[in-house]
């Protein structure tokens, strides 16, 4: 059991928010909120333990952990109305589908069906609105800048402009950099929209996600939902060699600047990079925490079962 949990945490990027626990402190909540505070110090005022739950203060408002839902005080007990936000450890390497246990495969398959995706409730967005500058399209578009990135003009949130410049500089230093740049067919950024097949907002709507598509896929899979259309039941089992994967230095350049790569998700999105510096910080905090790292203690503080909730689907 312990070995299975560790494998899922370390190699599958397992989300680690826990169920709402009004009866005591939740170590996951504290670590996530402190990771957010460290990643966005100019936006977040404090992390505190209030009314038997962890809280985070931003924009003059206090949000309760509430099992990962980040709810304002007026709704802190209304946990059944919202889905938790996805917080997870970033996988250190890409997991091969041939290592997935049968139960895990079936869980992914079930959660990938269209009905399950439509029925999932949205998360409460107020905290994201404070963190990213608004909840309305007009508010976000006022924060969008146009930048040149790898030869393409893209629109992104102004807070990631400098990070993208550093990503571009690192990519241009890699071997065969020009060959990679020449292979790119399109690059996308800001797009106000919902995640396909859901009622949840995409990170593209904040201007915090980048999609890099090649000119030619050569028959390779790049996005789970597209692959599902031609490989209905076994899209999650497509071998890594049959997926389009950016060069490792490209992935590392993005991750160094606080982005996560969608290719590490079970619901893989290999073109997608998303700005989530708090997940990198959370991964570091989890690795350093004695409860999480082991020291003879069980991992139920990290996750209640060996078949946890899965990382987010395409944003």
Radius of gyration: 19 Å
Determine the strand fraction and express it as a percent band.
15-25%
How many beta-strand elements?
A: 10
Q: What is the helix fraction of residues, given as a range?
A: 25-40%
Notes on the structure:
- It is a single chain.
- The chain is α+β, with helices and mostly antiparallel strands and 315 residues long.
- The chain is 32% helix and 16% strand.
- The chain contains 12 helices and 10 strands.
- The strands form 3 sheets. Strands 1-2-3-4 form a 4-stranded antiparallel sheet, with helices on one face. A 4-stranded antiparallel sheet has the order 7-8-10-9.
- Strand 2 and strand 3 (61-64) form a beta hairpin.
- Helix 2 (27-39) crosses helix 11 and helix 7 (161-172) runs antiparallel to helix 10 (248-256).
- The two termini are 32 Å apart.
């Amino acid at each position: 059991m312990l070995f299975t949990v560790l494998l899922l945490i370390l190699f599958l990027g397992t989300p680690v928010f826990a169920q709402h626990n009004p009866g005591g402190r939740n170590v996951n909540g504290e670590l996530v909120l402190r990771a957010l505070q460290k990643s966005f110090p100019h936006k977040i005022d404090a992390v505190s333990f209030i009314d038997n739950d962890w809280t985070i203060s931003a924009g003059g408002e206090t949000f309760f952990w509430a099992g990962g839902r980040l709810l304002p005080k007026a709704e802190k007990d209304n946990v059944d109305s919202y889905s938790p936000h996805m917080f997870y450890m970033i996988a250190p390497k890409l997991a091969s589908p041939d290592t997935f246990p049968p139960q895990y495969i079936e869980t992914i398959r079930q959660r990938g069906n269209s009905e399950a995706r439509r029925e999932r409730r949205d998360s409460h967005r107020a905290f994201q609105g404070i963190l990213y500058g608004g909840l309305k399209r007009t508010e976000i578009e006022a924060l969008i800048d146009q930048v040149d990135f790898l030869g393409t003009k893209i629109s992104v949130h102004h807070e990631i402009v400098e990070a993208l410049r550093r990503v571009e500089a690192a990519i241009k230093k890699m071997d065969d950099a020009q060959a990679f740049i020449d292979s790119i067919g399109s690059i996308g950024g800001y797009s106000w929209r919902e995640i396909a097949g859901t009622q949840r907002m995409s990170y593209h709507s904040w201007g915090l996600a980048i999609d890099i598509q090649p000119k030619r896929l050569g028959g390779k899979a790049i996005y789970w939902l597209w692959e599902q259309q031609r490989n209905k039941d076994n899209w999650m089992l497509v071998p890594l060699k049959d997926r389009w994967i950016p060069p490792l230095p490209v992935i590392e350049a993005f991750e160094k600047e606080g982005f996560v790569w969608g290719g590490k998700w079970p619901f893989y999105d290999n073109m997608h990079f998303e700005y989530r510096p708090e997940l990198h910080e959370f991964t570091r905090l989890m690795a350093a925490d004695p409860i999480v790292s082991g020291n003879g203690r069980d991992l139920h503080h990290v996750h209640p079962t060996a078949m946890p909730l899965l990382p987010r689907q395409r944003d």
